[in-house]
Amino acid sequence: MPSVTSPAASSITRWTALEIAARVRDGSVSAREVAQAHIDQILSIDGRLNAVVLRRFDEALLEADAIDRDRAKGKSLGLLAGVPVTIKECFHVRDLPTTLGVDRFRGNVAANNGPLVARLHHAGAIVLGKTNVPQLMMLYESMNPLYGRTLHPVRDDRSPGGSSGGEAAIIAAFGSPLGLGSDLGGSIRQPAHCCGIFGLKPTTGRLTTQGALLNLHGMEAIGVQPGPIARSVGDLSLAMRVLVAPEGDQSDPALPPAPWLDASPHELSSLRIGVFEEDDYFATSPAVRRAVREAAEALRSAGATVRPFQPPDIQEAMRVYFGLIGADGGADFRRMLGNSACDAQVSQLLRLGSLPNALRRPLAWCAERLGQHSVAELFRSIRTASADEYWQLVDRRNRYSDRFFHTMDACEIDAILCPVFGTPALRHDTSTVLTRAGSYCMLPNLLGTPAGVVPWTTVREDETTSRPESRDREQRAAIQADAGSAGLPIGVQVVARPWREELVLAVMAHLQALRPTSTLVGAN
Predict the structure, then answer these.
(1) 7-312+410-519: CATH superfamily
(2) Which among 85, 118, 338, 433 is least surrounded, fewest beta carbons within 10 Å?
(3) Catalytic: 73?
(4) What string of DSSP letters covers 300-346?
(5) pTM for this predicted structure
(6) Catalytic choice (30, 142, 159, 163)
């Protein structure tokens, strides 16, 4: 039976990771008290959420006791001393399986922690368990045949997002102050937006992907990037100090020996921010537009230079993104699945990816005639590629990146403020239909740039019914996403050039200080 959470324990679960580590180090609270409070919180809420699908509570309490003994002996404690953390299911945690929701990997039990998990542990973090993902990490919602569906922290009819949805849900529900996720097309940032918390996708290649079970093996044109999820910008910075190897990553010699730079103050008067509310690829919901507009005005009023910015040719960017992701026709996903049960939405995507190229143009024409413009665009963008075609896609990505950064230079901006995702949190089983709503968070993956999410506002009642009626399945799903969404969180996204995480975090810190916190899910 779940333990009854005391008022004191309830207060502990509201502390940030920075606060927990400081109080464990000074002895004002024990690591065991902190771990037990979060375990009790998980036990009290996760029967509904289904976020922490693999648990190590007994081991966590033993590790907490060891930290308390070290403190009593006067030993030096790490940056994350006594901080409970949760880990996305794709990362290896010793003695727990890594499956991506695929039954054939049920026995894939890790003998050791992966490098990033090991760094967290070495810094004093206490791993409580692993969190749910969509099967093969393919969707903007989190469910699979092995572990089932994860619910939104405050709305049963909504998804917390994906693929780091279980991670975002348990952090927003105060079961964990800090988590480790991964991001290939918004998989950290879209769940953070949906759940009203903070997330950071670092520069591609900043953190190692060793010690994880990932998908799209060998497809390095768009690199998956691990990153932290939390309820404050300070905790994201703290996590990055631990996750970035100080003198180069010995576990992954392919990574450059780039040291971590803590976010400097960056006076707002020195910052030049470019802003856009829509990308001319997917129309954003009213609350999404308002959030960006309000955040931009807050920065302007506080002294930043804020000017309009329009990304160049998002149609080209998204065709390259989807072309690269789907270049193998889904062969890697099918190889990973083997004979295991396949999620219904994953099956839809695999069918789309495996269609013969000769059928795609006529199918796109038919879809257009039937008013299915979004489906037609995906037929045109996703096709099995030859080696020559794949190399051409990589070349197009490189040329697009050059064009994008030249546009930033011409506009004289240091960072970009924009939407995270086109809608609020999705209704269950609609993420395949609304794949293109992720264009806003896919773009930084294509560019390899750092990008972070700040929760800003919640949907208002008058922002739930603005889209025109349409025959297009995507637009109808977007109408349903907006309908009944009042009160759901809405985040904004900050993007900077590669290797400028400290600038992203500095802008995020200003936004955190300026935001209307009283309206937010998971606000401290």
Answers:
(1) Amidase signature (AS) domain (3.90.1300.10)
(2) 338
(3) no
(4) HHTT-EEEE---S-HHHHHHHHHHHHTTTTTHHHHHHHTTS---HHH
(5) 0.96
(6) 163
